[in-house]
Amino acid sequence: MRPSSQIALFLVALSIPMEGCDDALTVSRDLSAPMQTDTLLYTIRLNGSLYETTTPIRYVYTNPTSATLYVEATCGGYAPPSLEKFEGGTWVFAWGAAVGACKGPSITIAAGQSHNDSLSVGGGAPSSNVFPKFLVKDIPGIYRLVWDGVAATPGGAEIPLEQRVSNRFVLASP
Q1: CA-to-CA distance for 76 and 74, rounded, in angstroms?
Q2: 48: helix, coil or strand?
């Protein structure tokens, strides 16, 4: 299959209505977002009482500023982004990873440089006692990654939100 045919097939697949949704979900790649995911479609399934992605969300964050950026990390160097879901025309917090309270050295990203990582998403339903948990009622939908704790000085004020978000992508039921 030619690459252009594969892209067309992929875009058709994204426009198929998902279970529990009245409207078809479609996304296109926003190349202006400083964080880019490896694909626009991920599968999330219920495994017992835990919703989890079937593959990690791989992402590349490219520093869009003219300054070196510092990302607050745990003592293990862990600084996972959170998930926001697009609902009712606005972005709402949907999920955040459970991380240790210990503080480690910041992840440092020079101006124009990139940081590669991946995020495995797992969380309970909003009504469950499983943590972390999703805070949105319907899990499938349009999402983006948000990186918190990103500043131009160590421990400083966060840079603007639009400088620390990913492109949109879909979390879909199998």
Answers
A1: 5
A2: coil
ω before 56 within 30° of 0 (cis)? no
For residue 12, the enclosing domain spans 3-172
Each residue's pLDDT tens digit, 1-16: 444 333 333 333 343 3
Amino acid identity of residue 46, one-letter, is L
Main-chain dihedrals φ then ψ at residue 163, nearest 5 degrees:
-95, 5
Let me know: does 55 contact 114? Beta carbons within 8 Å.
no
Which of the four pLDDT bands, split at 50, 70 and 90, describes residue 133?
very high
Indicate the burial class of 33 (C-beta count within 10 angstroms; 0-12, 13-18, 19 or more): buried
CB count within 10 Å of CB 117 equals: 17
How many domains is the chain built from?
1
Residue 87 in this model has a pLDDT that exceeds 90: yes
Distance between CA atoms of residues 43 and 57, nearest Å:
10
pTM: 0.85
Extract the tokens encoding 46: 């219920």
Question: Mean of the pLDDT values across residues 42-64?
Answer: 95
